[in-house]
Write a structure and sequence with these properties.
With about 400 residues, this protein is of the alpha+beta class. The chain is about 50% helix and about 15% strand. The protein folds into 2 domains: about 160 residues, no CATH class; about 180 residues, Alpha Horseshoe (Serine Threonine Protein Phosphatase 5, Tetratricopeptide repeat), CATH 1.25.40.10. The chain starts with a helix and ends with a helix.
């Protein structure tokens, strides 16, 4: 956005009205880009004659019918107060105007309600669900907020969350089933006919794509959408590492995934430059690290396994740690295969890093043997470690722990 504003300030002979009009168009292009790149099924536009209703949103995204909705609770939260109201009439719920909840439509002007967020809590029950298990209504929570307008169009972000309610006393074998479903949809309200504006957007978009492919310099207004067409991986890496140091793992994942998905496309097309490969692997490692810290080990292992392609010992250590913490059945096989590879090295090939990795593998092997209940084998493994000063303290703790386990079993 800073580059966009700088480009708008370049022409000193612009009148104030010209500048406002350019900024208005710039903001419109940015939001229209995001709107047009959604799933076509979710591209919902309203105008003075046609509404985007709650019923349309529920039916398009969740295949929910009007008779399946039981009640709607609306919370309006502005700078001065918070209000709530309950609606139980299905017709009113189904025809609830999402844009009207956020926009103020006066005689000649339209604007966002100042400082206001609107939260909708919808109760529903799918009629084809298993009633013996799903005895309570399900919930959908929708957070509405204005996110910028321009060229007589206003955009509204609907952030949607479905809480996770595992059935049968939380009996589930997939950790991610306990995570809520979340995604967002961008809605548009056109105060006048939007056909010309959308045509202008497509013209700018197509011209920008053409110039980028041919290496031509971008002019205005093509340069205003450049940051959307060409994501800044360096920016996402910087902020991802910054919030990671603050232990904001979910925030870090968002930044690192932006890098991953951008570079992944280049990787699949064999167009990833050598200097970008490090950023690709680093983003995978960081995503895996974050998911491991959140104890979502299955997701962590997916990204950490990608890192194994570059053959770094640091990547292997984190991958093995994740296998161990998740009690993965592949753990012992992977450790033994790594020890087998190290056994084939010549003596002069053992660097300090490889020696450290060798000791790490044996410590982890003993740890896994305890998890497997093979206490005698684990005891023998840790007893051998007492001969080496590097592992001695760790081995003593584990031997004491094995002693306690055997005492309890006896």
């Amino acid at each position: 956005m800073k580059n966009i504003l700088n480009s708008l300030f370049k022409k000193q002979d612009n009148t104030n009205d010209d500048y406002v009009d350019q900024l208005d168009f710039c903001q419109y292009l940015s939001n229209e880009f995001k709107f047009q790149h959604q799933n076509p099924q979710y591209q919902l536009r309203a105008n003075p004659n046609d509404k985007v209703t709650l019923g349309i949103l529920l039916n398009r995204i969740f295949d929910i019918s009007q008779h399946e909705v039981s009640d709607l609770y609306i919370v309006t939260d502005n700078l001065s107060e918070k209000k709530g109201r309950l609606i139980i009439d299905q017709d009113i719920i189904w025809n609830f105007d999402l844009c009207d909840a956020v926009l103020v439509k006066e005689t000649e002007t339209i604007k966002y309600k100042y400082g206001e967020n609107v939260i909708l809590s919808i109760s529903y029950r799918k009629r084809d669900s298993d009633q013996s298990l799903s005895r309570r209504n399900n919930q959908i929570i929708i957070h509405l907020r204005g996110c910028g307008g321009g060229k007589d169009t206003w955009f509204i972000r609907a952030s949607i969350m479905i809480p996770a309610f595992p059935l049968e006393d939380d009996k589930t074998y997939i950790r991610t089933q306990n995570q809520p479903q979340t995604f967002t949809v961008l809605l548009a309200y056109d105060n006048t006919n939007s056909a010309q504006r959308i045509a202008e957007y497509h013209t700018v978009y197509n011209n920008a794509i053409k110039k980028i492919k041919t290496g031509e310099p971008l002019g205005e207004p093509e340069s205003w959408v450049q940051h959307l067409l060409m994501p800044d991986g360096g920016h996402d890496l910087y902020w991802g590492n910054k919030v990671l140091r603050e232990k904001r793992y979910w925030d870090a994942i968002v930044y690192f995934e932006n890098v991953y998905y951008t570079l992944k496309e280049l990787w699949l097309k064999s167009k990833l430059p050598d200097d970008a490969q490090a950023a690709f692997y680093d983003s995978c490692y960081s995503i895996g690290w974050c998911y491991a810290e959140l104890k979502l080990y299955e997701r962590a292992l997916f990204y950490l396994e990608i890192c194994l392609l570059r053959g770094n010992i640091v990547d292997k250590v984190e991958y093995i740690n994740c296998l161990v913490h998740s009690k993965d059945v592949r753990t012992m096989w992977f450790i033994l295969s790594e020890l087998q590879q190290l056994s084939q090295l010549k003596e002069n090939e053992f660097t300090d890093e490889i020696i450290s990795y060798y000791h790490f593998l044996h410590r982890r092997r003993g740890y896994v043997l305890i998890d497997m209940g093979k206490l005698d084998e684990a005891e023998a493994e840790f007893t051998k470690m007492l001969e080496n000063e590097v592992n001695k303290e760790f081995a003593q703790r584990e031997l004491e722990y094995i002693k306690q386990l055997k005492s309890t079993q006896s």
